[in-house]
Amino acid sequence: VQLQASGGGSVQAGGSLKLSCTASGSFHSISNMAWYRQALGKQREFVARTRSLGETDYAASVKDRFTIARDSGNTVALYMNDLTPEDTGVYYCKVDVFLHGKGWSPGRTSTSWGQGTLVTVSS
Q1: DSSP secondary structure letters along 9-62
Q2: Is the pLDDT of residue 19 over 90?
Q3: Rounded distance between C-alpha atoms, residue 83 and residue 88, angstroms
Q4: For all residues of the chain together, what is the average pLDDT?
């Protein structure tokens, strides 16, 4: 499974950015799609997730400012509004897929990470 992320950049505090991540390759179906971020000198942290049936989860620090949305295909977007300098970091998409099983059935799960896209928010 290959993940292609895009949309990072620099913005002033209060601004907005949209990140996108598209999964490609051979797999049965997608389970969860999520975004994580890592600030300089800090551990990678969860940001948002959309599950296979459409449920969404958000970190408390981004709730009501960020929106995760998956299209009908294999792309997940992260809409980031009212950005603050604390949102600065490298954003990674993470996708859980079901690989092909027997016949048309799903097989085991597999997790892939995107290459990361840098978001810089200046005060």
Answers
A1: EEEETT--EEEEEEEESS-SEEEEEEEEEE-TTS--EEEEEE-TTS-EEE-TTT
A2: yes
A3: 9
A4: 96
